[in-house]
Structures are given as structure tokens and as C-alpha cells.
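ugh ok fine here u go
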Amino acid sequence: MYLRFEPEGIFGHYLMMSGALGGRDCRARGRMMSNDENAAGTGQAHVWFDLGSG
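structure:
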């Protein structure tokens, strides 16, 4: 389903990260690291995921 968005690297980086954070059990909240895209016109952004209690 996620391939309809034509992600860079087929979301490979995201899928590896989410697996390392617990996969389907991960409930980490993401927050934007800036108001800008990481590459102009791509819609891609840097997001940080905190693993605090919650």
C-alpha cells in the first residue's frame, strides 16, 4: 500500500527504523526536526522518534 506514495528508497530506511523500534508494537511519537524539507520539492522531512514511556 505505501508504494503508491513513490517513497525514496521504497521506504527502506523507515521500515528498518520502525523494525528496530519494535515493529508493530512501536508506539513512539514522531516530531518534525525542522519546518523545511530535507530536499526542496520532495516533500521529505527529518522526523525524530522519542522512545520515552508512553
